[in-house]
Design brief:
alpha/beta, Nucleotidyltransferase, domain 5, 5-stranded mixed β-sheet, 35% helix, disordered N terminus
């Protein structure tokens, strides 16, 4: 093992629907990729572990060079030991000793972290937050993830679970969340929320949903977030309105985060952020309307992530490479 400038690392991003992996160099460039579907959440943890190992082995077979470590970005609560997944709302992990389980099968140093922590690290090192001392990352996907970086350090909290912004309660008694509570932010400003609201229009027989219904052949269950984004980008007014609604809730949430953390930059990533200004424009407007002390304080900039859906695996690889260096 070496910490040389050219050292490669593998990053694995585990989400609610996929395990995506890449071999990443020190500049943040992904040199090789592999991807598998995530087994259903009811599946035994060993099956998810098998999927991760399969992706790692595929990447090692496809790579020439010195791979020094493997970083795992998991969509869930990761303990301060950066080894154990305490709880994953979209998978079956409960106090899962993931690093130990993988270390028995992968002959490289392994680091486990929250996927949003990994994405935030990648954006600070190589993307939209370069040069910023105080960064809040919000990732909009199946749910909402988040991370906080101050002076180049990820703040993980006493128990490792800081940054779970998606489970802040914004509507008491609101929609039931998979975490067990009601009214969590991610029930109003995530990909799931976007699709839920669109399907409710379809199922109500609203003429406003005609274009979206046509796109899925009349089958509301086939609707996805990317299809809604595509419709909005092509001018469908209902899809545009649905994205603006998600943007409004996003802005309300980040105004609260500004009151708590006072960052210089909010980086908005995850699959839903592919909507660009259709989402971020309404979010900035709502953020300014709800910001505490508005008009009398500096405002953080709200920017789109630059590394796209690969931010998580890039960051996971970089964090693992950093940890594998002698003396780190």
């Amino acid at each position: 093992m070496t910490g040389a400038a050219g050292a490669l690392a593998i990053g694995i991003d585990i989400g609610g629907t996929k395990v995506a992996g890449g071999v990443v160099d020190e500049s943040g460039r992904v040199r090789a990729r592999a991807r598998r579907s995530t087994p259903h959440r009811s599946t035994e943890p060993r099956v998810v572990e098998d999927t991760i190992v399969e992706v790692v082995e595929a990447l090692l077979a496809d790579t020439s060079g010195d791979v020094v470590a493997v970083g795992i970005g998991a969509a869930g609560f990761v303990a301060a030991d950066r080894a154990t997944v305490v709880f994953a709302p979209h998978l079956s992990w409960r106090d899962e000793p993931l690093r130990e389980a993988l270390q028995r099968r992968v002959a490289l140093p392994i680091v486990v972290d929250n996927d949003a922590n990994a994405a935030a690290w990648a954006e600070w090192r190589h993307g939209a937050a370069r040069g910023e001392s105080h960064v809040v990352m919000v990732t909009l996907g199946t749910g909402i993830g988040g991370a906080l970086l101050v002076d180049g350090e990820v703040l993980r909290g006493r128990f490792g679970i800081a940054g779970e912004f998606g489970h802040m309660q914004v509507v008491p008694g609101g929609h039931r969340c998979e975490c067990g509570n009601r009214g969590c932010w991610e029930q109003y400003a995530s990909g799931n929320a976007l699709v839920r609201e669109a399907r409710s229009l379809m199922q109500a027989g609203s003429p406003l949903a005609t274009d979206l219904l046509d796109r899925v052949g009349g089958d509301a269950s086939a609707l996805t977030g990317p299809l809604i984004t595509e419709a909005a980008q092509q001018g469908d007014p209902t899809a545009t309105e649905l994205l603006a609604d998600v943007g409004l809730w996003l802005g309300v949430g980040i105004a609260g985060l500004a009151a708590a953390f006072d960052p210089g930059t909010f980086v908005i990533g995850g699959g839903v952020s592919a909507a660009g200004e259709l989402l971020l424009g309404p979010a900035r407007d709502a953020y300014r309307r709800h910001l505490t002390g508005r008009g009398y304080r500096p405002e953080a900039q709200v920017v789109a992530a630059r590394l796209g859906n690969e931010a998580g695996l890039i960051g996971a690889a970089d964090l693992a490479r950093t940890a594998a260096r002698p003396g780190s």
